[in-house]
Amino acid sequence: MILCQISDLHIKPERRLAYGVVDTAAMLERCVAHIGRLPQRPDVVLATGDLVDGGTAAEYGLLRELLSPLTMPLYLMPGNHDERRALREVFDDHPYLQSNSAFTQYVVEDFPLRLIALDTVIPGQSGGTLCDERLAWLERALAESGKPTVVALHHPPFITGIGHMDRIALDSSAKLELIIARHPQVERVIAGHLHRPITVRFGGTVASTCPSPAHQVVLDLARDGADHFIMEPPAFQLHWWDGQRLVTHTEYIGDFGPSYPFREDGRLIG
Ligand SMILES: [Fe+2]
Q: Which of 51, 55, 56 minimizes the C-alpha distance to 25?
């Protein structure tokens, strides 16, 4: 099974540039086209938040259009730039979004890996939380099945060292870590928000973040570093499950020329 994770798409209305410089719509188009050309088709695509930049229906409408070439099941999750109600309304044919709960949390049972999506949004704030209600829901969801599981959330549940992002981190990581540690079927905790790939040990498993198909966050480990982004190569991740282990590959989006088949003796073939 291949789980494709995309994150932090930051679509603006009418294809406007994010921060006046990043063409997030064109970059998502390139990402979607790249996923369509992969030699192995992912079984599912999961978008881990910051789907749009301002949380408006117009932005979700454009997002819907940009994601429409994807031929595999698509699951969406909110991040701090999203607005739950507008997301639900525009993607009204996505049944997992249409709950009566205040939160957009859900379980996907259709694949060899069980997917659990958590909602870390605090409306109007950049940081995230998992309140007791959301954590109790997770505890119940994990107790229901011992099947290998990926838990996804927008805000990574760990401090990254990147000071300007750690200032808008998840405030409830320790509580989440205790729950994850009690459920060894959790193969991975995956997140977005950081716009770059990061990996850490967490609750007896591995936690990771995914790069953005648009702009990346500057790798600046200064505690008091300023907010800044950089146009490092855009990317997404493929999490490959072989039935035993979850292996994560970061795939860069762009034209890198042809591949070069070669022989053991170091010569090119052809
Ligand atoms: Fe983001």
A: 51
